[in-house]
Amino acid sequence: MSFTDKISMLMARPGGDNVQKDDVPWWMRYAGRGLGTVGSAICMFFGLLNCTGIFTFDVQCLIAGIWQIFAGFIVMVCEAPCCCFFIDYVQTLSDKIETRPYWNKAVLYVGLSLPPFMLCFVSVSTIIGDGLIFATGVVYGMMALGKKASVEDMRTSAANIEAGVGPTTAPRANLVTNEQPVSFTGAPHK
After folding, report:
1. Closest by Cα among 73, 53, 74, 75 to 64
2. Spatial CB neighbours of 159, under 8 Å, sequence gap ≥ 6
3. Which of 66, 74, 98, 152 is most exposed, with the fewest beta carbons within 10 Å of its own?
4. CA proximity to 143, closest of 55, 49, 25, 54
5. Per-residue model confidence as pLDDT tens for the chain (190 residues)
6. CA-CA distance, 128 to 85, in Å (whole number)?
7. Per-residue buried b or exposed e for 86-111, using 16+ beta carbons within 10 Å of the residue's own CB
8. What is the DSSP string of 135-180?
9. How far apart are CA 135 and CA 106, in angstroms?
10. Based on C-alpha coordinates, what's the Rg of the chain?
11. DSSP 3-state assignment of 188?
């Protein structure tokens, strides 16, 4: 594949969303992609700062910094493959991840952001760097939940639950089928 083919493939990607994700508002899509791109760059920068823990013999912060650089690179590859076009497999990996459901991205990003918190919690650079990747995972999690129902649909559902009409999703006690109401009978007799 030539260099110009790679460039044209990168330029064609941003509008190539599939039909499955059409119910997500456009601003949320751009928020997820923008936060992921900017957050991954900031995470890699703060990961480099955490790697200075080798000078203070803080091994846990060194490992957290390496993990931050790794997590930032993975998120950068998923969200902005044009930043890593010099690596051959980046576009194919990004296309595979783009076809996955939003909840897969949410789990991946949240999972990538948690280990440095546990290793080097007192570092502000860990909190800021991985916090942005965690926030990206939260945005993709919200996108996976989908669109909220309209006000009329929610009113109708609430009225049906109150009236006991139709299938309801009200919480029920299914553990004990013969439960009795709780009452206070007084102190036990001796």
Report:
1. 53
2. none
3. 152
4. 25
5. 676 666 656 555 454 544 445 678 888 889 999 999 999 999 999 999 988 878 888 889 899 999 999 999 999 999 988 888 888 888 888 888 888 999 999 999 999 999 998 988 778 889 999 999 999 999 999 999 887 778 888 888 888 877 777 665 555 555 555 566 666 666 767 6
6. 27
7. eeeebbeebeebbeeebeebbebbbe
8. HHHHHHHHHHH-PPPPHHHHHHHHHHHHHT-S--------S-TT--
9. 9
10. 24
11. coil
CB distance 95 to 77 below 8 Å: no
Total-model pTM = 0.70
* CA distance to 19, 20, 107, 144, 185, per residue, from 101 (Å): 12, 8, 11, 7, 55
- Within 8 A by CB and 6+ apart from 33, the residues are 79, 80
Residue length, the chain? 190
User: CB within 8 A of 131, min separation 6: which ones?
Assistant: 113
Task: Give me 180's structure tokens.
Answer: 């009795």
- Tell me the two tokens of residue 60: 């846990």
Distances (CA, A) of 13 to 59, 81, 118: 40, 10, 36
Beta carbons of 60 and 117 less than 8 angstroms apart: no
